[in-house]
Structures are given as structure tokens and as C-alpha cells.
């Protein structure tokens, strides 16, 4: 299958410093791509470039064979959704209102949400198991519930690509698993293309189909988890000694610090 | 639809407030007399007609337009600065406008053109200064914005005081009264300027209501969902400065309306600006008409500037918000 999203020799620099360079990668429909790398390796920049928030100085990002730079902001928002690490709400919105924000690119200036928009929102809430939270104020929800609602907002955009920037970094073990289970099933059942930036190597290797490991803004290693997650790769990229064995149940690579 | 239903109720409430306000004042006007005037009955005394049409009505309209604009301005500032305590008065935008207006008075400009224009320029300058001073690396910082507003407010107030102290003529009383929110000088010609601008501002801001919803949920998110945040913010700053500048030059400094009304709206209706914009605007009009009715009757036959009444209600309300909401809305 052809990738929905592909990056060709992409480079982006802040002033004179290249944050990412020579990046080539692709995500196919129904594929979960995990992006790994130490702090400052260009992971967040990569997501912003894919999302069109930052425009690369080199190369191009193709979405459905069309450069992202040629999409209008709202056309892009119909194709690409982003879930941030942490989202603050300064005013009190209900979970449903937050999810309906995902319909913004599909509504006209003076338009109210139609039946179709309401259906899309409740489908999205159902898919992330938070239909029961619809009327609750977003700031009263727990961290895990909030991330699920934000994932529902991304789904309500009805995108082909979802980008997640460390979606579980503030969550405890149970919610981490819950969110990743959800992301994984949505990816595979709906044929979405998902890119997730994560610091949790074990979780990422349990759930992802493909991985890319960045070092200093360049691809250091890419491929299936068991090919990327090796002791030598991790030592080279993260600069700390580890041993890698297998998860006794799932067989995915498991990293332990030594 | 909900927004139309609620707006209609508020609109009827506004009409009722206007009618009630026409009845109150130093001179007595009975319901029968008012009915007579409105239905064109010729039996009513000429004096009563003058009181109703030439004195009370213009003042009520001025209060309505000012309340409408100030409340709308507060709501929009709170959204784009993501700060529940923002208000044209607290941020110094009103005193920036007043500074422009005082400058206009010193130069002897017309109250119908030169002064409003300078007032608009002053308001625009202030909001520019506040947003530059409040700018941090990570976007706007809530408390920095407020502090910037307080400082600019103090600065402009000092300049205005300087002008007032050096202007030793009989206009002193007028100027001081005007500063604290005077609606007694209202004239129909001002409405001819103000009404179309206020209506246009309302339509523009309403067309941005969903943009504002997204901006209150974070600028990055808003951009990601297709909002041109820079353009939206610039438009809002311009439009609000324009109406605030007009209000200040016609009615002086009237504080806290932009704080009280939008928050009451939020408490009852939530945070959707498609509802909050019409509700705040109409509610602001009702509130200021009521406040001005109190201002001109409470120590009858003397009158108070309406700004005194709004500050009496608004300042405790501000403290209440600071204690209960200030912190809550900054974290979620």
C-alpha cells in the first residue's frame, strides 16, 4: 500500500540551527508509527512540520500526494488531527463542546453544528469510551479522561492522519495502557495513519507497527520495533547503557537500564 | 434555536428596562403620560415630552450603547487574552482612550469627530502596549497582562490629572464628571455615529465567535484546527478599541461592565461565544441603563456619574472573581 503521508528529504531550522534534516519517512493507512529519540532530537518539530504549523526550508511533506504547504489551514485540519501532550482550558467547556471544536474546519462562519456534526461528535466520544462524560466540564476530568476526550476531538475531525505528541506522559500506568490500546485499535480498525511521539520505549514497541529513532534531527534507525530497539541503537542515541530482552508475554523488545 | 430564543428574551427585557427608565427621574412621569407620549396623544404637556424625548431618551440610548460595547469588549478581551479578569477599564484601554479624548479637548477638537478619533487611537495604543508588555516567550502570561494594564492605567491617569490640574476654567467640573462616566451630555448626533459602528462591530465579532471559542482553548490548538490566530486577534483588538474609544469619548470612563456581565453570562450559559456575544452585549445594555437610572435618581435632584455605580458593584465582584475563579481558570 502507498503511504498516505510521506516526508521527502525534509529539513527545518530555527534560525541557523537545523532541528531536523534529511528526513525520509512514510506512514501507510492502518499503520502506527512511533517516533523515538532523546530530548531535543527534533520529534516535536517533526510533528509541527507534518501538521503544517512549521514550513520546512528543505524537502517537502506530501499528504495524499499533495504538498502540505499547498493545503489551506482548514483543509489540512480536515485531514490531520493533533493531540498534544497537555492541553489547558482557561474557560469551562463541557467535554462535548471540546469534541465539537473538532468540527470547526467543516463549519461556515455563522453556522451552528448540524445533526451530522453532533453525530460525528457522539461517535467519537463513543469510540474513546467517554460518551458518559459528554456533559462534564473538561477541567473536572482526570488526566486519562481528558486525554480520551481530546482523542475524541481528533476523531471528530474525521482525519486520515492523527499525530500524538507524548499523549501519555502525564498519565499513570493504567491510563497509559488504556490510551495506547485505544490508539492501536483505532489505527487498525479504521485504517488511520498515526504518528506518535513517545518517551516510553517499551510501550511504543508493544504497540507500534513501525518505528523511527531520531538522533540530532536525523533518522538513526527505522523499521519494525525489534529491528530498531537494540541495545547498541539505544546506547548510541540515548547515550546510556541498557540491556534489551523480550517481553515474556508479548515478545516485543523490552529495555532495562543497567 | 437557543441563541435566538435567549437573545429575544433579553431584547424584550431591554425594551422593558428602557420603558421603566423613562419613568424614573427628578421630574415625575406617570405610566399614563408615557403611554400618551408613545401613542401620540396630544393631551400630554409639552414639558413632559421634552423630558422624555430630549433628556431621558438620549441618555438611555447612550447608556445602552455604552453598556453594549463595554460588555462586548470585556468578553472579547477575556477570550483573546485567555484571562478571566480582563476588562477594557482594568487593562487601561479605557484610560488610554480617555487620554486621547482629553488631548482632543485640549486641542479644542469636536466631540463628534476629532475627540472620538483620538480616543480610538489612545485605546488602540494601549492595547498594543499591554500586549507587547504582557508578551512572554510562551505567549501571553495571564498576570503579566493585568500588571501591564494596571501600570498603563496609572500612567495615563497621571497624564489626565496633569491636564486637569493645569486647565483652570469652568470646564473642570465637566471634565471631571465626564471622566467618571457621564451620560448626561448625550445627544442624538452621537448615536448617528455610534450606532452603525457598534452594530458593525457586533456582526464582525459574532462572525469570529467560534474562532474565539478555539482561542480560549489554546492558540496552538486553534491554529491546528484552522484558525488564523494572528488575524483574529488583530481584528478583535481593532474592533474593540474602536468601540471602546467611541464610548469613552462620548461617555467617559465607565468601569467593570465588561467584567460583570460576561461572567454572569458564563455562569449561566457556559463558554460558547456564539451565545455569550449576544447575551453579553444585550445584558451590558440592560445593566448600564439600570445603573444610570440609579445614578440619576438615587440622590435626586443631584446626580451621580454612572461610573461610580458600576465601580461600587464591580470592584467587589472583581475581588470575588479573583478569589474564586482567578486561579481555577488558569489550571484545568
Please tell me about this protein's structure.
Chain A has 258 residues and is of the alpha/beta class. Chain A contains 9 helices and 12 strands. Chain A is 33% helix and 28% strand. Chain A has a 6-stranded mixed β-sheet with strand order 6-7-8-3-9-10, with helices on both faces. In chain A, strands 2-1-4-5 form a 4-stranded antiparallel β-sheet, with helices on one face. In chain A, strands 11-12 form a two-stranded antiparallel sheet. Chain A is globular, with a radius of gyration of 18 Å. Chain B contains 14 helices and 2 strands. Residues 327-332 of chain B have low confidence and may be disordered. Chain B is mainly alpha-helical. The radius of gyration of chain B is 20 Å and the shape is globular. Chain B has helices spanning 2-23, 31-38, 46-80, 93-106, 114-133, 142-166, 171-179, 188-207, 209-216, 219-224, 229-251, 257-269, 273-297, 306-324; strands spanning 135-136, 139-140. Chain B is 74% helix and 1% strand. In chain B, strand 1 and strand 2 form a beta hairpin. The A-B interface holds A 51, 53, 72-74, 76-77, 81-82, 84, 87-94, 97-98, 101-102, 104-105, 107, 109-110, 112, 138-139, 146, 157 and B 1, 3, 79, 82-84, 206-207, 210, 213-214, 216-218, 220-221, 223-228, 266, 270-272, 274, 328-332.
SSE map:
The complex is a heterodimer of chains A (258) and B (332).
Chain A: E1 5-14, E2 17-27, E3 31-36, H1 43-50, E4 58-63, E5 66-67, H2 73-79, E6 80-83, H3 95-100, H4 115-127, H5 143-156, E7 161-165, H6 173-190, E8 193-197, H7 201-207, E9 210-215, E10 218-223, H8 225-228, H9 231-238, E11 242-246, E12 253-257
Helix pairs in contact in A: 4-5, 5-6
Chain B: H1 2-23, H2 31-38, H3 46-80, H4 93-106, H5 114-133, E1 135-136, E2 139-140, H6 142-166, H7 171-179, H8 188-207, H9 209-216, H10 219-224, H11 229-251, H12 257-269, H13 273-297, H14 306-324
Antiparallel strand pairs in B: 1-2
Helix pairs in contact in B: 1-3, 1-13, 3-8, 3-9, 3-11, 3-12, 3-13, 4-5, 4-6, 4-11, 5-6, 5-11, 8-11, 12-13, 13-14
